Amino acid sequence: MDKKYQVFISSTFTDMKAERQAAVEAILNAGHIPAGMELFSASDKKQIEVIKGWIDRSDIFMLILGGRYGSVDPESGKSYIQQEYEYAVARGKPFFALYLTEAAIAKKAAGELGLKATERDDTKAYIAFRDQVKNRLCAEVEDVKDIKINVPNSIRDLAAANKLEGWMRASNVESLAPLMDQLASLRAENARLADELNKPKAEATMLSRFTGDFSEKSLDAEVKLHLEVDILAQGMIGARHQWVTTYREILTMIGPSLLSEPFEASVHAYLGKLLRERMPHFDSIKMLESSFQELKMKLAGFGVVNLTSDDRKIRWTLTENGKSLLVKVHAPL
């Protein structure tokens, strides 16, 4: 199955910007998700606990060691990157390390960074940590191009050797046929109990009914949905983010939940849950109401969703076209 993995990048910051950028690009080009310490303040003791949480949520830990030991935690006497590295190892997190050769460090020192590219304060600690890193899975780096080569290869090797959780498209999950049978059985039982209790259901008012010719290709149209996100470590509250996808992808994501004919509030909440799972780098995320309403009307207009008013609440149900498409995606012949 085609999975995407979150890779946490650890390194010193000021002297390793080019290397970190190369790693981010390599991870993205390989189709995976980068996460790093840019979101945190290493001088704040509380942030190390936040970073540990991000390491736990990441599938792979990656260290890029340059010529600096980095900021030191006065309580432990260790640099923050060493704490991150040792935490990942202790937790059994799949990891790989890259370290700049002496020649590469000397080249950086001869450039704009000057002496800022090399360790001057904690040389013994730096040397001991460098030796510690080199005794485990690692590769040397002469140039940023070596990072772009090593990153995808290392991710691929770690994925093959470990059962990484990652995430995948909903269209790649196992067949939903057994679940659909179970839901049908439960719905039948629910109807039987409702009859026994003699609680007649109020007639639902149809708000949308598709009358045109169904075109499956219309679902491949691109849609840009607007999200409101929080990144607490950066002090970003209510920031705007755009999610570009297709109507087919959205239907594939939420389609199984529509088998129970939920009310609109439940659909909105379920979609928000899926977005949080898909974009874990945000602390919170929700779709703007305007985008959600536009999405609702488009799905109804494409003939895959019916909207009914039931006790003054809007209920979502799959049309026959929607059910057929869902079965085709999740249980192909």
Automatic annotation (TrEMBL):
Q: Give the matching Pfam families.
A: DUF4062
Q: Which InterPro entries match?
A: DUF4062 (IPR025139)
DUF4062 domain ranges (all copies): 6-88
Source organism superkingdom? Bacteria
Task: Specify the protein name.
Answer: DUF4062 domain-containing protein
Q: Which organism is it from?
A: Paraburkholderia madseniana
